[in-house]
Design brief:
Chain B: This is Rab-GAP TBC domain-containing protein. The structure holds 2 protein chains of 2 kinds. Chain A has a single domain, classed as 3-Layer(aba) Sandwich (Rossmann fold). Helix content of chain A is about 30%, strand content about 20%. Chain A is built from 6 helices and 6 strands, in the order βαββαβααβαβα. Chain A has helices at about 25-35, 75-80, 95-100, 105-115, 135-145, 160-185; strands at about 10-20, 45-55, 60-70, 85-95, 120-125, 150-155. The radius of gyration of chain A is 17 Å and the shape is globular. Classes of the chains: A alpha/beta, B mainly alpha. The interface between A and B is medium-sized, with 32 and 37 residues.
């Protein structure tokens, strides 16, 4: 993949956004990458994509985020994008209990299709709708602990905790990657700078070995 | 060489005027010239302009977006006449053209001084962008075609392919989709029966308590309810409660009656052109100012029924586009990739080298039939061509989308993987007028004529 000389970063991390339809995945993404929010945004068809480069633990990280359609019918299409992802943001809507109940189904999706070491963060979105809240923070917290997930509540509309959510998952990915490269003797992640292939989207079918995939 | 080329193209055009594209004689003559024409297309794409008559120069206003003023695009205008049926024909014989408001603002028109005032006043308030569809001769042809006891659908397809005058759209679309029968004696009766049948369906499936629905049905209804408020949200008309309720009834009833696919996100988009067209029989002016509150419930129900049946007819031809894993769409995306490779090798190679999969951008195009990619006011014109294609639509979509994609051939070759994904997700079509769309369609038609009759050229 061609790299522009003016685009410097130490790491490129692929992250997927998953969760039921209408929980606010696309708005979390647009809030994080463009600082925008759209009350009536269109449903995502298939997969959409955005990036943002930011500092994580003193390193420049380019986050490449794949936003997926929430409807079950699209899983055959979207699950292809899980491979090579280092992180997954699993979103539910704090005002819609069914979207929280379905978190377990999404976890199964990840287990079936994503790399085993993928970092998963559960996000309860739409905390701005206080009077409509139907999923208690404590319930979600204990579920997250039980499943070994990080957890945070956000409001994409009010821009609360969105930055923190992405920062947290990217830091976690960074720690795992840097630890792994020390212990396994694999090429140091800094080599990414030299233009090695990083798995993104469908190029994952290529035979080149990804250098910062968790697999 | 170049002159020969021109002659060939003109001959080719003339034949296309008089033969529907499946006519064997057309096919054989195209076959014999295939290599020549292929070179023409390649030349066209590489920037070697083929001299030809510039017949369609009714350009609206200066385009704001630099990317659609790319050399490819400008050049392509000279070929606007080469593709679609009737284009050249119409442009040559019609001196008396009604022109729309928007065109009057333009500087580069053919016949602004002889505009047909009557037609103009009738048309502009409904669709200020439509140019050719309002040409008086075309209107006459449509009127004539629609007034016969049994409409000749093939003829109507040929006419409709190049755009239907807005106020005739409801009638023409019903006919083209096979919802209204060609026989005018039977038409009213059939529509009445179908509309009642829809009412029954709504009563039977939609107007029931949730306790009578299965879990899957409840889920589906919930999904539809999530999607209705975010259907074409940039057109405020669709934000009206009553409109969203209609949308919900149509979608749910359709989904229940088509269990193999059920509701799939994006089908909500596909109802909107029908809603706008069938409502246009009752509402005037700009869509954004429409209000359905003054339309009687009976009429709303008729409109819904028409939308429901037309959606059904449209999707009958693409059943496997929305079933599990959407194999129909995957197949067409593959065909699109192959066609683009045939037509524009450099851009195809670039896309491949960058690791961009066609599925990553073209999936949505097929799933929503391009509604998401162009301004909404152009969608009905695009659908005139879709519906005129009839059963051949799925395959023709491949040509339209190839043509659409290659509008930005040069631009794409300058982008890396990420830039391409982002660019293709938000294509700069906001300022598109009819001309840009006509260009896409004309080129699609031209390529279809050349490639489709020579399938071996598409084999890998």
């Amino acid at each position: 993949m061609a790299r522009r000389p003016d685009e410097e970063y130490d790491y490129l991390f692929k992250v997927v956004l998953i969760g039921d339809s209408g929980v606010g995945k696309s708005n979390l993404l647009s809030r994080f990458t463009r600082n925008e929010f759209c009350l009536e945004s269109k449903s995502t068809i298939g997969v959409e994509f955005a990036t943002r480069t930011l500092q994580v633990e003193g390193r420049t990280v380019k986050a490449q985020i794949w936003d997926t359609a929430g409807q079950e019918r699209y899983r055959a299409i979207t699950s292809a994008y899980y491979r090579g992802a280092l992180g997954a943001l699993l979103v539910y809507d704090v005002t819609k209990p069914t979207t929280f109940d379905n978190v377990s189904r999404w976890l199964k999706e990840l287990r079936d299709h994503a790399d085993a070491n993928i970092v998963i963060m559960m996000i309860g979105n739409k905390t701005d709708l206080k009077h409509l809240r139907a999923v208690a923070t404590e319930d979600a917290q204990s579920y997250a602990e039980k499943e070994g997930l990080s957890f945070i509540e956000t409001s994409a509309l009010e821009a609360i905790n969105v930055e923190k959510a992405f920062q947290t998952i990217l830091s976690e990915i960074y720690r795992i990657i840097s630890k792994k490269s020390l212990s396994s003797g694999e090429p140091a992640p800094a080599n990414i700078k030299e233009g090695q292939t990083i798995v993104v989207g469908a190029s994952e079918a290529s035979t080149k070995k990804p250098c910062c995939s968790s697999s | 060489m170049k002159n020969n080329t021109t002659t060939n193209i003109n001959q080719h055009k003339e034949e296309e005027q008089h033969h529907p594209k499946n006519d064997p004689s057309t096919v054989s003559s195209i076959d014999s010239r295939f290599n020549q024409t292929l070179k023409n297309v390649q030349g066209l794409l590489k920037g070697r302009s083929i001299p030809g008559k510039v017949l369609l120069t009714r350009r609206a206003e200066p385009l704001d977006d630099p990317s659609i003023q790319s050399p490819t695009f400008g050049r392509s205008f000279s070929h606007n006449d080469a593709g679609s049926r009737d284009h050249m024909h119409e442009s040559m014989e019609e001196k008396d053209q009604s022109t729309s408001k928007r065109n009057n603002e333009g500087s580069n028109m053919l016949n602004s001084s002889t505009s047909n005032i009557e037609n103009t006043s009738k048309e502009t308030h409904k669709s200020p962008m439509t140019a050719r569809a309002t040409d008086s001769t075309r209107v006459t042809k449509f009127t004539k075609e629609l007034s016969v006891p049994t409409v000749r659908l093939e003829r109507l397809r040929e006419l409709g392919w190049s755009g239907v005058p807005p106020y005739m759209r409801p009638t023409v679309w019903r006919l083209l989709l096979g919802y209204a029968p060609p026989n005018s004696d039977r038409r009213e009766g059939v529509l009445r029966r179908k509309r009642l049948e829809y009412l029954d369906c709504v009563a039977q499936f939609y107007d029931i308590p949730d306790t009578e629905r299965s879990d899957d049905e409840i889920n589906m209804l919930r999904q539809i309810a999530v999607d209705c408020p975010r259907t074409v949200p940039d057109v405020t008309f669709f934000q009206q409660d009553q409109v969203q309720k209609s949308l919900e009834r149509i979608l749910y009833t359709w989904a229940i009656r088509h269990p193999a696919s059920g509701y799939v996100q994006g089908i909500n988009d596909l109802v909107t052109p029908f809603l706008v067209v069938f409502l246009s029989e009752y509402l005037e002016g700009d869509v954004d100012n429409w209000s359905v509150s003054n339309i009687s419930p009976e009429k709303i129900s008729d409109i819904e029924a028409d939308c429901y049946w037309c959606l059904s007819k449209l999707l009958d031809g693409m059943q496997d586009h929305y079933t599990f894993a959407q194999p129909g769409i995957q197949r067409l995306v593959f065909k699109l990739k192959e066609l683009v490779r045939r037509i524009d090798e450099p851009v195809s190679r670039h896309i491949e080298e960058q690791g961009l999969e066609f599925l990553q951008f073209a999936f949505r195009w097929f799933n929503c039939l391009l509604i998401r990619e162009i301004p909404f006011h152009l969608v009905t014109r695009l659908w005139d061509t879709y519906l005129a294609e009839g059963d051949a639509l799925p395959d023709f979509l491949v040509y339209i989308f190839a043509s659409f994609l290659l509008t930005w051939s040069e631009k794409l070759q300058k982008l890396d993987f990420q830039e391409m994904v982002m660019f293709l997700q938000h294509l700069p079509t906001q300022n598109w007028a009819h001309q840009e769309l006509e260009m896409v369609l004309s080129r699609a038609y031209m390529w279809h004529s050349m490639f489709n009759s020579s399938p071996s050229h598409l084999a890998s």
